[in-house]
Amino acid sequence: MADALAEMSTDALMREIQRRLDCQSKPDKRLILVGPPGCGKGTQSPKIKAEHCLCHLATGDMLRAAVKAGTPNGVRAKTAMESGALVSDDIVVGIIEEAIKDVSCRNGFILDGFPRTVPQAKMLDEMLGKKGVAVDNVLDFQIPDEVLVERIEGRWIHAASGRSYHTKFSPPKIAGVDDITGEPLMKRKDDNAATLKSRLDAFHAQTQPVIDYYKSRGKVNVIHANKPSKNVEEQIASALK
């Protein structure tokens, strides 16, 4: 971290120092983003992360990082994957527990892609409860299934940051490259109509009960995601006041 700061220009360094000072006054937030593929979570999560000084925890990314780092849960996950087994819920929750110890998560976190089932939600709540904290808010990105095909088929991703673009609704400034880094954008292999239908069926069957679970605890805010990006941002800002 110190080396990274040393390489910054004076202006960039001052901005980073100011950002860190601003973050100290931000209240803690522990958020879960829920929504079907293509609902806009990928567009909004970097903005939420920056505004509230949170870390962004995407299950797949955390799993790969834990395996690469050789953490205890990463070793367990690698063993499961190499044997062809699914990574168990307790391993995933353990990886989340390891991840939130990082200094980048000191103000809280955004969970994206987990929990997908009610048992996972209960395990997550139990783990956080032992630390004396809890999920503060669940943002439920709602959008009609029929709208998602167009969104999915036009989506492009900057792999390193997770920034999401769309050829029609949110195009990059220069076609095919990320606005920030200028690096090439990529298309996910599963961003097609056939795969989307299968994923939507699984989402509705497995994840809707998660919404109901948190709704019974008064933690859910509905985000009407079939709106212009600015309107979605305003809904999120209102929900996170």
UniProtKB/TrEMBL annotation:
<comment type="function">
    <text>Catalyzes the reversible transfer of the terminal phosphate group between ATP and AMP. Plays an important role in cellular energy homeostasis and in adenine nucleotide metabolism.</text>
</comment>
<dbReference type="InterPro" id="IPR027417">
    <property type="entry name" value="P-loop_NTPase"/>
</dbReference>
<protein>
    <recommendedName>
        <fullName>adenylate kinase</fullName>
        <ecNumber>2.7.4.3</ecNumber>
    </recommendedName>
</protein>
<feature type="domain" description="Adenylate kinase active site lid">
    <location>
        <begin position="155"/>
        <end position="190"/>
    </location>
</feature>
<keyword id="KW-0808">Transferase</keyword>
<dbReference type="Pfam" id="PF00406">
    <property type="entry name" value="ADK"/>
</dbReference>
<dbReference type="InterPro" id="IPR006259">
    <property type="entry name" value="Adenyl_kin_sub"/>
</dbReference>
<dbReference type="GO" id="GO:0004017">
    <property type="term" value="F:AMP kinase activity"/>
</dbReference>
<keyword id="KW-0547">Nucleotide-binding</keyword>
<keyword id="KW-0418">Kinase</keyword>
<dbReference type="InterPro" id="IPR007862">
    <property type="entry name" value="Adenylate_kinase_lid-dom"/>
</dbReference>
<dbReference type="InterPro" id="IPR000850">
    <property type="entry name" value="Adenylat/UMP-CMP_kin"/>
</dbReference>
<dbReference type="GO" id="GO:0005524">
    <property type="term" value="F:ATP binding"/>
</dbReference>
<dbReference type="Pfam" id="PF05191">
    <property type="entry name" value="ADK_lid"/>
</dbReference>
<comment type="similarity">
    <text>Belongs to the adenylate kinase family.</text>
</comment>
<dbReference type="InterPro" id="IPR033690">
    <property type="entry name" value="Adenylat_kinase_CS"/>
</dbReference>
